[in-house]
Amino acid sequence: MATSDDLWGSQLTAVTFDPVGHTCVLSAVAYETTGDTSYVITCTSVTDLTFHSSIPEPWTYADVTEVYITEDGSGQQLLELMLWSEDAGIEIRCAQIDITEVAPG
């Protein structure tokens, strides 16, 4: 199984939130000289989802600069993605976070 370390330096390609099912699915691709690796990050039982950016212009891609997964002491997990710099990011608080490497094809 993939870990949050695998996501450092990847590019976030999609974020899909299902407000009925309280799930958020993120897609990312790590571009490497040995080949590209795709990842799916599934957050279940989402209780909080935040995007923030003080970078005024649109981006051509979303670079995942840093990734952290921590527990908040109440049984919830917090996924923090820094996009480009501390000026932009996504935070998701949920019951479970699964990171899966997608087989090429």
What key attributes describe this structure?
105 residues; eight-stranded antiparallel beta sheet
Q: What is this structure, in a nutshell?
A:
The chain has 105 residues and is mainly β. Helices cover 0% and strands 58% of the residues. The chain is globular and about 40 Å long.
Which percent range describes the beta-strand content? over 45%
Give the rounded overall mean pLDDT: 93
What is Rg?
14 Å
Q: Which ranges are low-confidence, i.e. pLDDT below 50, for 5 or more consecutive residues?
A: none
In percent, how helical is the residue content? under 10%
Global outline: globular
The helix count comes to 0
Order of helices and strands: EEEEEEEE
State the major sheet.
Answer: 8 strands, antiparallel
Using DSSP, what is the number of strands?
8
Tell me the structural class: mainly beta
Termini separation: 18 Å
For the largest beta sheet, what order do the strands appear in spatially?
A: 4-7-6-5-1-2-3-8
Structure in words:
The protein is mostly beta strands and 105 residues long. 0% of the residues lie in helices and 58% in strands. It has no helices and 8 strands. Strands 4-7-6-5-1-2-3-8 form an 8-stranded antiparallel β-sheet, with no helix packed on it. A hairpin with a 4-residue loop joins strand 6 and strand 7. The mean pLDDT is 93.
Question: How does the SSE layout of this entry go?
Answer:
Layout: E1 11-18, E2 23-30, E3 37-44, E4 48-53, E5 62-71, E6 77-83, E7 88-94, E8 96-102
Antiparallel strand pairs: 1-2, 1-5, 2-3, 3-8, 4-7, 5-6, 6-7
